[in-house]
Amino acid sequence: EVLGAGPGKGMALRAAFAQRGGRVYYDVAVTNHTQEPMAGIAFQLNKNFAGLTPTNPLFPVASVPPGATVSGSIELTVEPAKVEIKPGPVGATVQVAVKNQAGVLYYTDSVPLAPLLARDFQMPQPLYLSTWQAIPADAHGAAPIDGFPTADVDAVQNALLAAGIVLVARRTVAVGVEALYMAGKTLAGQVFLFELQVNPTGARVTARSQTEGFASLVPAGVHALLMDALLPAHRPAPAAAPAAPRNPLEGLL
């Protein structure tokens, strides 16, 4: 629930971002806890890292009866003028304004990486290497992944491929540690590269992007994608101990 009935003045919302047919949607379920029909519902998104904005802000159902829950989808488009990247976890959220006949309310929702990925992206290994090396080392995001859902590298690789992330290479970098070298592109055109190390007790993501600030969003985005894809079939593993500093590309050079 992204908005409860209390702060929502009788309107409760559940919502999720999704991609269908190459388009991004904001799927919303509206529950009316008031004694009157709720009409004129519309949504707007503030600037966000993906540049998402509603194609039509109006909720597709004209009125929600008292006590009822009604679901609908808001189609979103990408507007470069709406792109704003804030470093850290706050960067992967968006402030949403929702209006009904009682006024305007605000709440914050998280924006997952998976619905934003371009599914036709490709990156050959030579381009991956040259792109990684051309990005300053301080323009990166690196973090251990807490509660990683599985040590099955095949399952991890398949989940990422299914989301539209491409595999450039896979290497064994230490005893019991495999690394996936992968890349992706958002519908807003942000290209990101990352190394995902998987070991029996956890994982670590190191990412770079030519888009300023975007690399810091990748570790959490990859983590959330994998948790959503794999958690139903795998129990979370203990967090990995921080890895010693190393060159993430040493397995490819």
TrEMBL record:
Name of protein: Beta-adaptin appendage C-terminal subdomain domain-containing protein
Domain Beta-adaptin appendage C-terminal subdomain residues, every copy: 117-227
Residue spans crossing the bilayer: none
Annotated GO biological process: intracellular protein transport; vesicle-mediated transport
InterPro entries to which the protein is assigned, alphabetical: B-adaptin_app_sub_C, Clathrin_app_Ig-like_sf, Clathrin_b-adaptin_app_Ig-like, Coatomer/calthrin_app_sub_C, TBP_dom_sf
Give Gene Ontology CC terms: clathrin adaptor complex
May I ask which residue range the UniProt record assigns to the signal sequence?
none
